[in-house]
Write a structure and sequence with these properties.
Number of domains of chain A: 2
Order of helices and strands of chain A: HHHHHHHHHH
Low-confidence stretches of chain B: none
Number of domains of chain B: 1
Radius of gyration of chain B: 18 Å
Number of strands of chain B: 10
Largest sheet of chain A: none
Oligomer: heterodimer
CATH class of chain B: Alpha Beta
Pfam families (chain B): ABC_tran
Distance between the termini of chain B: 38 Å
Keywords (chain B): ATP-binding, Nucleotide-binding, Transport
Shape of chain B: globular
Organism (chain B): Aequitasia blattaphilus
Protein name (chain B): ABC transporter ATP-binding protein
Mean pLDDT of chain A: 86
CATH topology of chain B: Rossmann fold
Distance between the termini of chain A: 22 Å
GO molecular function (chain B): ATP binding
Helix content of chain B: 25-40%
Helix content of chain A: over 70%
CATH architecture of chain B: 3-Layer(aba) Sandwich
Number of helices of chain A: 10
Strand content of chain A: under 5%
Number of strands of chain A: 0
């Protein structure tokens, strides 16, 4: 049954999300070849007003597409389970856990696709031949890694893989936060959407505060001496490790609460 | 006859202390068409939603065919809500596939035939159809299941008389005689001739639970007349 739920959840949101991300790709290609390729990154050539505004538009467009992605994911969760459409969904012979898992899996997949695509598009427009020529990026990065303690390419590769894993965990946590906000907002008899938005900002703030408080001792210890700053791999891996644990704990707790609310508390 | 529905001390109280269902006890047996009647606000939809796991009871318990409300009870119940609950971006034929995917006792051939009989193009998206036609599609999907308990919440409210006749005909000709049909409505005159048993619900409690024949013999009135007398404003 879970497979069938996932099939229909993907079907419900994939077309609008494919359209959004196709538009992002087309806009990226247009931007690269008609604007960013013509930017001269050498010192004495400031950006023209048009170029500056276009870069701003590109940045805002990326944010809008990312926001749109998560809004579509959130709307599917809300409409399918907590509005009139819930009369069909909640009377299917499947558990509330299956519903939650299905929407979580679909949300995570599209959230991850969105993150990867935006990262790729941003890199694609920035890293033009002119940029590489002006900044000597690759040479600079080699020096950076050597100065800050990366001794071999294995460590660099591990750092990149760890970054991808942390990104995935962040997407999982973002989805959990959205769904928890919606579940809490649905406890109200009126103004559910407004309540959900309010809960989103409160939870977002709370999650950020918890992460910051947990990370603070490590940050203080790791930046207390010049030598400790130079051992960037150790700092990064410690940071990533602790942040991952915090995200896993917060996400797990969130999903437990969401499931409890769906099963025991939320009325249609 | 076996027990198909059992509600024991069922209660639903809301946050403002309003008690929509108040320690209700009810047992229904298989093979009956039961009319759940009551004025607006009497608790009919609240009771139906609790049976279908759309509302969480404050107290009491519900058994459907011996199972508490959950996955197994939902396999045995075919529910027609009083609102349109289908995904309107799907095509009619995709909705048939959807029901066939999730319900083991769904008969897609029967559903397709009824859809074609109504002249509905199965390739149409639900959102392109009229309100009445959407409701008929929802009814067809509900009645195409070989369920043990059919629960129809206001199936004939808000439609024209010809559509009412079609809906009642569809209900009667498509349900298994061993199954139970629970119809909630306030249009008693329309369903009096098809129901076997009648339940009057007032202020969240059942004040009458009799067969239609018993009502006529004991009160010397039709169910419609008795309803008007009991629930006189």
């Amino acid at each position: 049954m879970l497979g069938k739920l996932i099939k229909y959840d993907f079907k419900a949101i994939s077309i609008p999300l494919l359209i959004l991300h196709s538009a992002l790709l087309l806009f990226t290609i247009f931007s690269r070849f008609f604007v960013f390729n013509h930017i001269d990154y050498s010192e004495n050539n400031p950006l023209s007003l048009f170029t500056f505004l276009f870069v701003l538009l590109f940045y805002i467009g990326n944010i809008a597409i990312s926001l749109g992605t998560y809004v579509i994911i959130a709307l599917r969760f809300y409409k399918h389970l907590f509005t009139e459409k819930g009369y069909l969904a909640r009377t299917l012979p499947v558990s509330s856990l299956s519903h939650l898992l299905s929407k979580t899996i679909v949300g995570i997949v599209w959230g991850f696709v969105n993150t990867i695509l935006i990262t790729f598009c941003t890199a694609f427009v920035i890293f033009t031949p002119s940029f590489f020529k002006a900044t000597n990026l690759i040479g600079g990065m080699n020096v950076f890694f050597q100065v800050f303690g990366f001794h071999n390419s294995f460590q660099v590769a591990f750092f990149l893989i760890a970054t991808v894993i942390l990104t995935l965990l962040s997407v999982i946590c973002s989805i959990a936060l959205i769904y928890l906000a919606i579940a809490l907002g649905s406890l109200f008899s009126n103004h559910k959407i407004l309540a959900s938005i309010a809960f989103y900002f409160v939870l977002n703030f709370a999650y950020s505060m918890i992460s910051s408080i947990v990370m603070l001792p490590l940050f203080v210890k790791s930046t207390s001496t010049f030598e400790s700053i130079r051992n960037l791999p150790h700092l990064l891996f410690s940071t990533y490790g602790i942040l991952s644990i915090v995200i896993i704990i917060l996400s797990t707790l969130s999903y437990f609460v969401i499931h409890y609310l769906m099963d025991k508390k939320i009325d249609l | 006859m076996n027990k198909i529905l059992e509600c024991i001390e069922l209660t639903k109280k809301y946050a403002n202390n309003f008690c929509a269902i108040n320690q209700l006890n009810l047992t229904l047996y298989s093979g009956q068409i039961v009319g759940l009647l009551g004025p607006n606000g009497s608790g009919k939809t609240t009771l139906i939603k609790m049976i279908n796991d759309c509302l969480i009871p404050t107290g009491g318990i519900i058994y459907v065919n011996g199972n508490p409300v959950g996955i197994h009870s939902k396999e045995d119940i075919s529910y027609l809500p009083d609102v349109l609950s289908l995904d309107e971006h799907l095509k009619v034929e995709e909705l048939v596939t959807y029901f066939n995917d999730f319900y083991k006792n769904f008969n897609p051939v029967k559903a397709h035939q009824m859809i074609l009989d109504l002249g509905i193009n199965p390739s149409s998206r639900l959102r392109t159809l009229s309100k009445g036609t959407k409701e008929k599609v929802q009814l067809i999907l509900t009645m195409s299941r070989d369920a043990k308990l059919f629960i129809l919440d206001e199936p004939i409210g808000g439609v024209d008389p010809a559509s009412r006749d079609y809906i009642l005909h569809t209900i009667l000709s498509n349900y298994n005689p061993d199954a139970t049909v629970l119809i909630s409505t306030h249009l008693i005159g329309e369903i009096e001739n098809i129901i076997d048993r009648v339940l009057f619900l007032q202020n969240g409690q059942i004040i009458l639970n009799s067969t239609v024949d018993e009502v006529r013999e004991q009160h010397h009135k039709s169910v419609d007349q008795l309803f008007r007398e009991v629930f006189r404003c």
